[in-house]
Amino acid sequence: MIEFFDVEGSFPRPVEPSPAQKTRELALDATFPAPPPPTGASVAIAVGSRGIKGIAAIVKSVANTLSDRGFSPFIVPAMGSHGGDTPQGQEKTLAALGITRETVGAPVVSEGGLVMAGKTPGGTPVWVDERAFGAAAIIPINRIKPHTAFRGAVESGPSKLMTVGLGKAKSAAELHRAGLATAIPAAMKVLLETGKVPFGIAILENAFAETAKISLLAACDWLSQEAALLREAWVLYPRLPWDNLDILIVEKIGKDISGTGMDINIIGMERRYPGCGAFPVIGQVIALGLSEKSGGNATGIGYADITTKELVQSADWEATRLNCEASGFTEAARVPVTAEDEAEAISIALENLGKKPGEVLAVKITDTSSLTKIKVSRTLLDHLPPHFHRL
Fold first, then answer.
1. Rounded-to-integer distance, Cα 150 and Cα 144, Å
2. SS3 letters for 193-248?
3. What percent of the chain has a predicted confidence (pLDDT) above 70?
4. Of 245, 239, 244, which is closest to residue 377 (Cα–Cα)?
5. Which domains does the chain have, with CATH numbers?
6. CA 254 to CA 265: how far, in whole Å?
7. Is 362:247 a contact under the CB 8 Å cutoff?
8. Residues 389, 6: contact at Cβ < 8 Å?
9. 221 near 198, Cβ under 8 Å?
10. What does the alpha-carbon distance between residue 137 and residue 195 come to, in Å, rounded to a whole number?
11. Residues 6 or more apart from 145 whose CB is under 8 A from it?
12. Torsion of CA 224, 228, 229, 232, to 10 degrees
């Protein structure tokens, strides 16, 4: 077996001391286009991304502030095909995030069809939840971070939540087919032109999964603001400090960790786009288990070379299939070589590489969003980069 040693990395760590209060201040100052919605008008708060620190408190702050301003807020799921693309499944997903009527002080409206808000210049329909589109305004709340499948001016953030998430599985499939890098900003322009999206709340997180910054996106320069925040997010984004590894062991994968179960930026974009030339390049990726909060969705298992019986048996393969079909990356649902346990998985990896335990460059991580404390093999321990130290 490979001998592992605990090490810790140093990463930028800006922290917003009071995310809920900051959100309230922004929402109080935010303006609506003239004429503003009348007193008592309904306002939809669109949420649905997983793994955001303190998201329930932030949503509650927006809901309370809108109520104080005389509006009637409600929560609408914006998560594409997640939650099985059913009202009950999506409401359950929100509840798992701590977002319920009781916790945020606004009703959750998960049932409703879709309406087409318009089409992009390329002819792609822009679908939106009909209950949200029927409200006087829609306020999205989401974290901005690099996406796991494409590079663009805007990636994961409020625009993706509005265009891919709020249009459910239909919109997710349409925009993935059109190409997210160009389809998301084009579709967001369509939504902004309706006048239904006066502002949004954007969240940045640091490498320690703490809220680093809360910002308001104004409709007048939404896409340029979001692009600037994405550049800030890249600075905060944690990475493994090696371009080439023999083995990466990932203890947990899951949709609450990454949209692709394992962040492709961490395990190597080559696994999704062979020949793209991106780093890191990792010889063997081992996925050991599935996070409980993923709800059985094992999307991303197909990007591992080896997995375990435990992960395979804990997966909800129907939910996994639906998610992967909606994204257009069905290979993410493939089942790799399945080992009895971690020891056998490592043995298979070593055999595939043709190397002995003491020769390999190996790293073990809790998941791809937890990179501040990791385990490394002796071969890496002796050559740690300056911002990593042994514990």
1. 14
2. HCCCCCEEEEEEECCCCCEEEEEEEEHHHHHHHHHHHHHHHHHHCCCCCCCEEEEE
3. 100
4. 245
5. 19-236 (3.40.50.11440), 239-390 (no CATH)
6. 15
7. yes
8. no
9. no
10. 8
11. 155, 156, 157, 204, 205, 230, 233, 237
12. 170
Decide: helix, strand or coil at residue 12.
coil
CA-wise closest residue to 65 among 18, 25, 107: 25
CA 380 to CA 361: how far, in whole Å? 6
Mean pLDDT value of segment 220-246: 96
Residue owning tokens 């062979």: 274
94: left (phi over 0), alpha (psi -120 to 50) or beta: alpha
Inter-axis angle of helices 168-178 and 180-193, nearest 10: 130
What's the token pair of residue 368? 């791809």
Three-state DSSP class for residue 97: coil
The first and second tokens of residue 238, run together, are 């944690």
Q: Is the pLDDT of residue 169 over 90?
A: no
In which residue are the tokens 């991304």 written?
49
Q: Is 180 helix (H, G, I), strand (E, B) or coil?
A: helix
Whole-structure pTM value:
0.87
Q: What angle do CA 235, 241, 243 make, to 5 degrees?
A: 110
